[in-house]
Request: fold
Amino acid sequence: MMIDEINWTKKSLISIEPLSRTEIETIFSLAQSYKSAAEKGTLKFDSLAGRTVINLFLEPSTRTRLAFEIATKKLSADTLTISGDASSLSKGESLKDTARNLVALGADLIIMRHSASGAAQYLSEAVDIPVVNAGDGSHAHPTQALLDAFTLKERLGDLKNKKVTILGDILFSRVARSNIHCLKKLGAKVTLAGPNTLVPKAFEAMGVRVSHNLKEALEDADAIMLLRIQHERQTSTHFPSIGEYTTSFGLNERRAHWLKPNAVIMHPGPINRGVEIDSKLADSNNSVILDQVKNGVFIRMALLHLCHSAHLKTKITLPLKAKLTER
Reply:
């Protein structure tokens, strides 16, 4: 769906659940506009010129943090990244006080990653500027789900009735939860697969299929999304060993023959090569892993622009006007 004028009212993005399909398509339209302009040589836009964006990353991150940093710079914002070790939180200051101090210092928008589920919602209620959730505990990772769906649409077109299998550690995955909500809103049929200790039947309440038979889960999938084992969020052992997980559920060349010839292979990263996926498959023509990384910048540019515009109650029109047009 491409539109000339964008209607968006949400100041913050905490999770996928409050978004309508129309709002998701709006994000995609703006992201596509940015991507198309970038592919034609545009380096920067003035969408957030003069604004200060704080990346408050209180949990380790590489791809997400860098994608947000690049996105804010491409929008011409001044960007500061703060880690947990470098903040007063390490001295006992509360998250609420940290955020309010950032606002007092002139922050216009806060992007936050936190190990506690619900932290982003709490922060958004404590400050009057936009907050974008970059991942909170096992709860949600909305921008990852949006970039995943955007990438899938590039390969598969309309996602209505497309079959997507999410394989791996579902129990502790915020990526899986956000993807389930996003894909279902776009009409996809979702299957969760993996060992029963990590993929309990309780997930069926979310309107998905749960399968512990890998062949069954893979053979009719239009796309397979692999997830790593979330050791950092587990408090007990949920399977005997990494080797046993790989033996039973790793996507290798033999099991890849169960897939449709054009099935899309995805992974949000970081990839554990030889564990959840063999290197040859990760680097194959079916893989869109690097496309996901690339699209993550444009999805985040779109969201930052949308949330900031909603806060200021300004309109966004397409096509976007570039600040710099030469490469």
